Structure prediction request, 576 residues.
Amino acid sequence: MSSSTTSSTFRRAFKSVTPTPTSTDTLRDRLAAVLPHGFKFAVYHLSTPPTKTEPLCSAPPDERPDKTFGESHFLAISIDRDHDAPASLKRASPGADEAKATEPRAQVLVFAVEIFIFTTAYSTTLFVGKADSTGYLHLLKLPKGTSSPTRQVTAIFLAYLIEHRRRKNTQTIVNLFARAQSQYLFPGSVQNDGKHILDDRGLVKWWCRVLNPLMEGLRGEAWGTPKGYLLVPGLEETDTRAFVPRTATSADNWVIGHPLEKISHYVDEFDWVPPRCLIPRYPDDPKSRFRDELDEEVSKRKQGIWKWASVKNLDQFWEMMSFRQECSSGRLTGFIWLVFNPTKKDTAAQAKTTTSTSSFDAPFSSHNPPSTPPRRRVDILAQTPRSNRGSPLKQDLDGSPPRPDRRKKKDKLKRKKKKLTGPIISRPPKVKRQLRNYLLDRPTSTKYYYWPPEGRGAKVVSESEYKRDIELLLHLDFSTLDKAVGSSRRWISQAGVGADEWGASVLGKAKTQGNLFGSVSSGNQGAVVTNLTGLVRRKRPSQETGQSTAGSNESGPISINVLDAGLIRKKPKDKA
Prediction:
């Protein structure tokens, strides 16, 4: 397969489209473009509607926290236990397909990933919670040299959610932390010999290779110039640079450090922001747990919760993170961010936006690492651009007279209820003939989130039902193939209760996958892979001994040396 064909396949899978309700580029089509050619897969996409949740970052003193909405997305991939040969290699026999169609095929889960989406009026954040595989992908019997499609599936799913959550004048952020474990989502899968478990260094490199094509595929006028950030607590910049993929544009795309000041709108509004207000709180996140421990050691009566006793800035925070149990004792934990800033056209169209020296469009380089700005003794209330008219507490601070309460006037204007008189007419009961999902009765676009129908899962469930389905998966057993098939059947049946279309069948179309990411990560030109297999000469043993090797071209009979009887000496027996 030529490099141009591979690049076109990748661009089609990562096609940057405007998230409109009329878009026909579905997740199923994109996954088919990167899955192995001729093999069948089943895709299960579970999601929740935007629900108001706790803010990621704490607000500065005397400020209201950002109104935040959260979504949960879970994608699972399964294959047939008794997988047939690819469709191009099978021989058609009359009546065989009809007989097999009536028999239900046993499915086994092979890969799953969980992503959380947090949206505010300022940004959209995608946090990768967990990603895991069962190790039963070898049942497909892929051709030798074909790479595992898990990396491509993860990148496609992330790109699909990013494109369908894009909003004007809004920053998009992808965040995750890489910490190696034997199993995350599939209990007992570590006992499967077919599962390939990466170590700490291998996992950080794997995630960098997953996210690097996103910056190439989503680059253009609609997305601007994205930036990737990598931080491994306890490692120097030169050692951390070894985890970044070696491509032509990696030096410009990746920055060694963290973008916490770049992605916080509080830095543009105030002269000094406490470090606690810059660290987001994600589920099952090491830095979030460290932040909670720092909050516990501070007395609220003395200093206030926004001032820590031991940590004064973000540099000290990350320095102390390197001594944590999750980042020390011979283990590495990598924190990775992708930042998609608003384009220049969107920024110019927003008239009320005021930028400072630490704006989002500031140049990023390794010589200019992010750091916490020095604290200045400036009145915080005077620096905020927000209006203080809506809060009665802030009206007293400003000295303005409070507004009269309008609720009392509305209560007086309410009309008195009239007494019902006359005969009572009973209403006939209405029979419920169809099941309706009331979770879909929500606005598609608001000031705080964008929820298009294309970006939703095949089944939209409530938050409680979503947690119940995930808890069920965490209590199953995938140690053996038989147990994995039974566990997969139970989860698929329970998670798909009430769904019209559950388990969409996808037929792979990618003929080769070995150079799919390498050809695009270096730019528009495809990467050339040099194969030196036929140029390596192996030393053949000398043929003077009369013995022939298994790989020799000689077709004659194999000669066997027979020793004469006189050359064998027998050990005399000792006489008792």
Observations:
- The longest strand covers residues 68-80.
- The radius of gyration is 31 Å.
- Residues 492 and 503 are 8 Å apart (CA to CA).
- DSSP finds 17 helices and eleven strands in the chain.
